[in-house]
Specification:
alpha/beta, Rossmann fold, 5-stranded parallel sheet
């Protein structure tokens, strides 16, 4: 059997390389194990358990530049909701018009996949679900009509689904300022109508135009320790041997610090740079990847 080119560094594969689409493409296995907890993660954890245990309603924004880890945080909430058998809906709003996004929300909330295992029906469909399905049929009738987004029955149906399925989580990714203002007003109306045990989380690069959302969790870049921990966790996941190796091998701490400094602590760019540098190390048969090697590599 042919050995992996990364065998030289006691690795099965390049642990820093991931497919286009990343986590949303289905690469969620071990997400919690690979996550480097920052102060912001504890804020999100508090909001999650306030919803789950204290039955509170919260709306918050997760802010950060591209590659800061917004999608990862939302998907961690998805995984945690599954563990707790809570109702959860995750949607990517990126590049979608307001009508399409609202249609997707109505569709997702009406499916069994959304509902918690705690909430089991008898032989009769509950009233809130019949109403939601009816609103969805009405909303989709006659093609795209943006004016329907602002109808009170839409926000009432969504809020009703979240209320009756609580604890419930509505998570919207890549929700930028350019999205239809009607959708923003719809979310405001939904939040006003939900009563208890609901968390609505919106991830965006900027909080522009969303001043009505009081709670904001701003993701910062990795410091030196966090960058080293991120690298060590990913290397460990691909190790081929169990004997003791330096957690950062084949990288030196100085090399990791240099790369992290170059990408200004951006987690995604850190991984992309390290993937290129590790491949360069394999190609050049470098025994160790130190700061000098990093400086000679075009990443």
């Amino acid at each position: 059997m042919r050995k992996s080119p990364y065998h030289k560094y006691a690795l099965l594969d390049n642990p820093f390389r991931f497919e286009a689409g990343g986590f949303e493409a289905g690469q969620r296995e071990g997400l919690n194990l690979l996550n480097v907890k920052q102060e912001e993660d504890y804020e999100l954890e508090d909001a999650f358990f306030d919803t789950l245990e204290k039955n509170r309603k919260t709306i918050l924004q997760i802010l950060g530049q591209e590659g800061a880890g917004k999608t990862e945080r939302l998907l961690l909430l998805v995984e945690r909701a599954k563990e707790e058998a809570a109702s959860c809906c995750y949607l990517n709003a990126g590049g979608k018009g307001g009508f399409v996004l609202v249609a997707e929300i109505l569709d997702a909330l009406s499916k069994p996949k959304f509902r918690s295992k705690r909430k089991r029906f008898g032989i009769f469909t509950p009233g809130w679900l019949r109403e939601l399905r009816g609103v969805r049929r009405w909303f989709l009738a006659d093609g795209e009509d943006e004016k329907k987004i602002g109808e009170g029955r839409v926000s009432a149906a969504i809020a009703g689904a979240l209320n009756e399925s609580s604890p419930s989580f509505l998570l919207l990714d890549d929700f930028e300022a350019g999205i239809d203002l009607r959708v923003v007003r719809l979310l405001q109306a939904v939040f006003e109508k939900v009563v208890r045990g609901v968390l609505i989380a919106i991830a965006a690069e900027s909080g522009h135009g969303q001043s009505w959302i009081a709670k904001k969790v701003e993701l910062r870049g990795f410091n030196e320790r966090e960058a080293e921990l991120c690298v060590a966790k990913r290397l460990l996941a691909e190790r081929t041997v169990s004997e003791k190796l330096d957690p950062l091998y084949p990288f030196t701490p100085a090399a990791v610090r240099k790369v992290n400094e170059s990408v200004r602590g951006n987690p995604k760019r850190l991984l992309e740079a390290l993937a290129v540098i590790l491949d360069a190390g394999v190609a050049r048969r470098a025994e160790i990847i130190d700061e000098e090697f990093v400086l000679r590599t075009n990443f």
